[in-house]
């Protein structure tokens, strides 16, 4: 453990002249190894001064490196580690922390481990880890191995009451029973060949694909349907995740929060009688960069390495946004939540393979030709372009739709129930509405 800490401090203290962090003032960088807390506060203020995609990389890097230095200091203090020359009369504590004397009580396990995980995950979530993804993962993995599989007991830890291999509970209010009958089914195929899939893409139509995930460990030996397994992979549930609070991001009461994985599961997924008015959704989050061990449980579908047809052939109407940049690799996002969570009717800027690992979802799709009947939003307060999202709640009562969106009832669509082990190909530009019918864990793969 100490060797890992020393290597980590050395890595963030040895600054390459080409490193973006050098754009920060030299007086700031001088504090990095010894006083990370004020640097975290400074970088945090900079992160909120700009839109995220406009934040200078130096401030994201400072937030990340200062967070790593702080985490190292917390570990060093708790475990009594220090760094320095063996011949020195006085050793220097790791990460700028205060060395623990014989008569000074070290932080309690249940406190300091949570703090280390919190600090490092905030760097990943708030600053995108800024080039230190491997460093953070190595530090957390070493710490977890050093302490044991889940680490020391957590404060007020309560067992989920389910063994590894068991499933999430089925809600008593049975959202599953609210699945509509499928009147307009979309085309389906069993694990089509690459050539067959490329041929289908030329039609610019969605397709349901079965038997394409049978080789994923997440479906079998490393089951994401097991709450206990997911807790193991998230350091006993300590890892932080961003959670959307509410039914849909278009609802007035919708909000966001950063909570531990364990709190998310206990509060929103494990109850057999959940509060339908309060739902938590891990939505469109790059969970697999944050927790690479979960990435090892899945594989990018081969279909994502096909060459999509020209955007005009695929149909990309329905948004005023400029076309996205070319991707070198598919973009992966996690979608994990209870029954009743909704992704409102919208379009994506990329071709999408949506893979269902746990549970079921109802999906309804409209072609770009139906756009005028779907009432796209426009530019909202703050200049946010929402033209890829519809104003319509696709499953609203008929009287509401007739009164407020009369053209919507005329729009043609296809629909399906997306079951475990199935994939759904959604061409770029196609509108889609998604509602979870049970506890659901999905992975989307965007590519162009």
Q: Your description of this structure?
A:
With 448 residues, this protein is of the alpha+beta class. The chain is 29% helix and 18% strand. The chain is built from 13 helices and 17 strands. It has helices spanning 2-13, 26-29, 36-47, 57-79, 109-127, 133-147, 194-201, 227-233, 261-269, 287-290, 292-295, 311-314, 398-404; strands at residues 82-83, 92-93, 188-190, 207-210, 240-245, 255-260, 280-285, 331-337, 342-346, 351-358, 361-366, 379-380, 384-385, 414-418, 423-426, 431-436, 440-447. It has a nine-stranded mixed β-sheet with strand order 3-4-15-10-17-8-7-5-6. Strand 3 (188-190), helix 7 and strand 4 (207-210) form a beta-alpha-beta unit. Helix 1 packs antiparallel against helix 4, helix 3 (36-47) runs antiparallel to helix 4 and helix 4 runs antiparallel to helix 5 (109-127). The radius of gyration is 24 Å and the shape is globular. It starts with a helix and ends with a strand. 42% of the residues are buried.
């Amino acid at each position: 453990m100490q060797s890992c800490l020393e290597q980590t401090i050395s890595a963030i203290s040895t600054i390459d002249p080409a490193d973006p962090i050098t754009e920060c003032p030299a007086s700031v960088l001088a504090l990095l190894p010894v006083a990370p807390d004020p640097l975290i506060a400074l970088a945090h203020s900079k992160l909120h001064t700009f839109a995220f995609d406009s934040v200078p990389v130096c401030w994201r890097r400072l937030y990340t490196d200062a967070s790593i230095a702080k985490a190292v200091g917390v570990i060093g203090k708790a475990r009594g580690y220090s760094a320095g020359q063996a011949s020195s009369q006085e050793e220097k504590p790791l990460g700028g922390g205060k060395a623990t004397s014989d008569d000074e009580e070290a932080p309690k396990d249940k406190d300091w481990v949570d703090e280390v995980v919190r600090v490092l995950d905030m760097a990943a979530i708030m600053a995108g880890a800024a080039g230190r993804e491997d460093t953070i993962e190595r530090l957390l993995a070493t710490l977890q191995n050093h302490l044991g599989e889940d680490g020391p007991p957590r404060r007020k830890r309560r067992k989920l009451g389910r063994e590894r291999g068991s499933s999430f509970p089925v809600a008593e209010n049975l959202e599953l029973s609210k699945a509509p009958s499928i009147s307009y089914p979309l085309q389906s195929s069993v694990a089509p060949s690459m050539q067959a899939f490329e041929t289908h893409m030329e039609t610019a139509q969605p397709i349901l694909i079965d038997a394409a995930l049978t080789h994923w460990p997440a479906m079998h030996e490393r089951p994401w349907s097991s709450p206990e397994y997911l807790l193991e992979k998230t350091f006993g549930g300590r890892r932080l995740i961003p959670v959307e609070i509410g039914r849909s991001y278009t609802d007035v009461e919708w909000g966001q929060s950063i909570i531990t994985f364990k709190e998310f599961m206990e509060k929103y997924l494990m109850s057999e009688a959940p509060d339908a008015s309060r739902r938590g959704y891990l939505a469109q989050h790059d969970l697999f960069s944050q927790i690479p061990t979960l990435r090892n449980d899945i594989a990018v579908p081969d279909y994502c390495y096909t060459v999509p047809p020209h955007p005009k052939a695929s149909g990309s109407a329905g948004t005023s946004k400029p076309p996205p940049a070319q991707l070198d690799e598919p973009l992966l996002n996690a979608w994990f939540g209870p029954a009743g969570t909704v992704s409102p009717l919208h379009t994506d800027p990329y071709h999408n393979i949506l893979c269902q690992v746990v549970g079921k979802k109802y999906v309804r799709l409209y072609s770009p030709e139906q756009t005028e009947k779907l009432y796209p939003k426009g530019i909202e307060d703050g200049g946010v372009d929402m033209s890829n999202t519809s104003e319509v709640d696709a499953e609203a009562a008929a009287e509401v739709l007739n009164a407020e969106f009369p053209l919507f009832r005329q729009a043609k669509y296809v629909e399906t129930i997306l079951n475990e082990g199935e994939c759904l190909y959604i061409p770029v530009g196609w509108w889609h509405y998604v509602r979870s019918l049970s506890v659901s864990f999905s992975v989307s793969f965007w590519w162009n």
